């Protein structure tokens, strides 16, 4: 079941060929696929029922992105490259035994061979591939060895080898084969593997028909399958030669003050990588692009290509000058122009997707806010403030507040609180302190009050909020309680004099907004608590070490930040902070003793997520 964010992105998918990259909640790419029609293919993951591996994949998808190309063939090539680059978990079954993808190689030697290899080397050989279909690659090599033989034996042995008698070796086993003979065959093989397979297919077709006419149906079927494998393998590949020019392609699209940039990295005759940028601009796009390209190549470890391609609107001479005189050109025809246009098309689609997602989000979240207020029977509002507490067994108590305006989080208004008057786990007391501090301050500053206050919790927290607001501060602000089910997921909203569940529709926009608010305030509180707990825990442990006073402790905290890093530091590293040899040795010895205690602390920290 797709969430709201995914639903919005699915609605914006284009009816075009391309590749899609599925990501998990951490933004890691977990699957790469290709599609003749991105809209139909990607939607099928979320709109159909699945089993096994696909069901597991869908359950882990939190986001996706896509790259539009011009044809299914280009999508096939790009898919291979992206799988090689990102090594997605759910694509692992495409790998060959040792984790690589096979290539067909013509060796660079006096008597060359054609073979399947797993590594691309700069050895002067010619490489074709890579091939995700290992069987098809193997069949193609077998075919080439029969039709365009080179050397298939181990070399000179003073007598013809078996393959020579079978017509699959030029005879290096017993004679000197002219280099011209090899060159002629290599030219045919290159042409074939580069996709020029018409002649070979005609020859095979004739053999298949001849075998069928002789009622040699098994032989005819073998030839038919061989043609199929060749089509799968050869017609969707391009040569990778060692002298191909590395090129970077820049194109852009601008609308409504936003600039969308696409950078394509062409290496080994294929699109190896894509980067995208999206940001608001004030100057005209041409000036921004020249500045962007200049800064792009000043990044650390950014290697200059041999050629840069840009649209005609950009000054090629100026860009060439700022990137150390690398040739900058605008292609007028052919594949280079097609790639440049493809980059521009992707830039436009990324920006248009952003605008349409914003429109969808604004319309949905504004409506969601009204859904909530209507369900609660209160006046329509715009601003919600939500609170949550966090602690470990009553220690390191903190609270956090998040703010949503018209259904959107406003992180500039978030606040964190270290509790001052509560020193043990007491939900009511913790709630009263943070509510008292927050709204006493707003009253003093004559600041705007929220239209609704939400607590992550039930009746205890809600009554504590109402007590402070009404009996201490004289405020009349609606208060709701966000409750979770046994699976720690948002279940409902409590409201009213008797804290009654409103039984919101879990598929409604209002429920979706409530879920986002509860998840966000919990995330913010947990994140803050981890920092406080880690700092307090680390400080207390360092204070227990003989010879470590406040100054030494603070030095260690600033430099290393964790017990593990301090423990892994050498005596020399500690001495660099001005710590004596004796104290440094004491620190190392003491930390080894409390390693078990640290494991217990880590276990307790994990309980925060449950």
UniProtKB/TrEMBL annotation:
It comes from the Bacteria. Gene3D superfamilies: 5' to 3' exonuclease, C-terminal subdomain, GIY-YIG endonuclease, UVR domain, UvrC, RNAse H endonuclease domain. It is found in: Cytoplasm. Pfam families: GIY-YIG, HHH_5, UVR, UvrC_RNaseH, UvrC_RNaseH_dom. Signal peptide: none annotated. Belongs to the UvrC family. This is UvrABC system protein C.
